[in-house]
Amino acid sequence: MATSSLSSVETPFVQVDLDIAERNIVRLQAYCDEHGLKLRPHIKTHKLPRLARFQVEQGAVGITCQKLSEADAMTDGTGLEDVLITYNLVGEAKRERLRALSERIRLSVVADSAAVVDELAAAMKGTGRKLTVLVECDTGARRCGVPTPEAAAELANRIAASSELTFGGLMTYPPVGGTEAVQVFMQRAKSLIEAFGIPVETITSGGSPDMWRAHEAPIVTEYRPGTYVYNDRSLVTRGVCGFDDCALNVVATVVSVPDPHRAIIDAGSKVLTSDLLGLTGHGHVLGRPDIAIDQLSEEHGRLVTEQPINLSVGDRVRIVPNHACVVANMLDFVVLCRGETLIGPEPVAARGRVW
Amino acid sequence: MATSSLSSVETPFVQVDLDIAERNIVRLQAYCDEHGLKLRPHIKTHKLPRLARFQVEQGAVGITCQKLSEADAMTDGTGLEDVLITYNLVGEAKRERLRALSERIRLSVVADSAAVVDELAAAMKGTGRKLTVLVECDTGARRCGVPTPEAAAELANRIAASSELTFGGLMTYPPVGGTEAVQVFMQRAKSLIEAFGIPVETITSGGSPDMWRAHEAPIVTEYRPGTYVYNDRSLVTRGVCGFDDCALNVVATVVSVPDPHRAIIDAGSKVLTSDLLGLTGHGHVLGRPDIAIDQLSEEHGRLVTEQPINLSVGDRVRIVPNHACVVANMLDFVVLCRGETLIGPEPVAARGRVW
């Protein structure tokens, strides 16, 4: 990409405005500092060591990853060294990689069943090191997690009793609007575990939609938002931020204007993805609230409006996608800028790291 | 991936059974041969030079790509040399790459407006070569394409009049069930163009859902299906094939069984994607028709059933995804096999090539 201005970068591309991303990071860090909350951002949104380092420099206690391969990519020669993997790690290949990673960085992981706890203990056997394990709790998302505070206490006990593991606390990823349920579940679980004489050092929750309400569950000691660094149409629609706070845009070119109310752009689901997150349409065209992106195929996005569309072949549009995290996973690099100033392409280090 | 059997490949991964893929290729080639149809498979599904070569060896006249960068990846040292790009190419960067590619391989492209025709002519100016351009027609999909046979004839005339371009024929990507509309549109467009004294060499249509009905539009000379090489849940649901004909599966591990009717797997939207294609749920778990994949987040898939789910942490499941093409775009490699015999990982050469 030997080009000197944003307008000459070949479309479609994913543009990340570092000024906006850094402002988002600084603002949430200030909120967490004000409320005595530790911040451990999830890197699933940006997948860039560069932004993770900025988050840590601003005060984050470390980073969150979902998979071992993400943690590998984020800590390999990057200076990042404190990672929580909020995922049950299962299988022989993962045990080996877990052992290797735990030797290299300060690592903690989670478990929501005796089977996973036993896998983790087996992975650490003979290393002479203890792995910190948090219990994942289901506070309403109905995904992973022990279903009750009693089950959380039982699993905490099993972890604490293992000579290979250290009990690190409780973890949840609540559904949107689940802040109060987090408080109730965690209070009860903490009491039960402390009654066993086991300290509960960390209670960690997450989710960008409710990030400005994190202090309403005061039992939570640590927060793990991901999307806040970029924001997206989903968060704008929920009132969490404005379009001006969206650091990640998709830039596309109009390739066809088959009728006065329809235009086709060169970005489809291979850039914008099909994630709807409950919304209608596939993104917001900046400056054109009248336009809906009503259909995507892999390489085509269809823009429609009841007004005259007033776009010509060759015009560029900028789109705030429904879901920033998944868009950042589609291409090998994003194009960094500050406002209209092009910085250049940045490899998405943890893209496609699903193992 | 130093492993000797499929069961030891780390999950999640995308598995491609070459026996099934080759059978699908041979079967459709035989159908096309029987009906005197040229076959020009779209590589958007597999994105693998290896399978494209097999398609050509079996009788395909060349391949179809959607973007220049796909064509670059598919023809760079692969022996493949006949490509139709079914996409309006717009912008200075693309003009340069088009020039370079047209020098290297036998290339044809499409246009659906005077603006695109003029861009293509400008790209070829001074090369001394003529580029073959087909007119894209909208036969009901309401995406790109000229809206009427009259408009197709007008654009064909403009192409034929250019000293840099050769008119190559007509192209459409019809909606599912649009075979009859293709016949009607193309017949009229062909007559109008021939009345100008311009021959219409190729009339090319596509779409795996209607591939076994391609002969019902006898005016069509060439067919461009993509998905048929792998098939998927969408095509099974439409009655086009069976699950035994699905060459691409996602293999995942159960990481949590939080209640007797729910299990969580380590494949989410970063492998299966959110494409629904009008279906309910996010894939078919082979051997378990009672299970629905009712929710995906990026790294989690949620399996639910009204019966006891009878899965344990560590169990593997194989999933036929809704849409094979987009799944093949998510990871850097697929794992090739023949039945239960592992062949090994194969880089997805054209993955993420959206330019």
Our count of helices of chain A gives 10
CATH topology type of the largest domain in chain A? TIM Barrel
The top-level CATH class of the largest domain in chain A is Alpha Beta
Radius of gyration of chain A: 22 Å
Q: What's the overall average pLDDT of chain A, rounded?
A: 97
Question: Biggest sheet of chain A: strands, sense, closure?
Answer: 9 strands, mixed
> How are helices and strands ordered from N to C of chain A?
EHEHEHEHEHEHEHEEHEEHEEEEHEE
| CATH homologous superfamily designation of the largest domain in chain A | Alanine racemase
Percent strand of chain A equals: 15-25%
Largest interface: A-B, 62 and 62 residues
**Relative helix content of chain A:** 25-40%
Q: What is the count of distinct domains of chain A?
A: 2
Overall SS class of chain A: alpha/beta
Oligomer: homodimer
Instruction: Give unreliable regions of chain A as ranges.
Output: none
The global form of chain A is elongated
Keywords (chains A, B): Lyase
Family (chains A, B): Belongs to the DSD1 family.
GO molecular function, one term (chains A, B): D-serine ammonia-lyase activity
Protein name (chains A, B): Alanine racemase
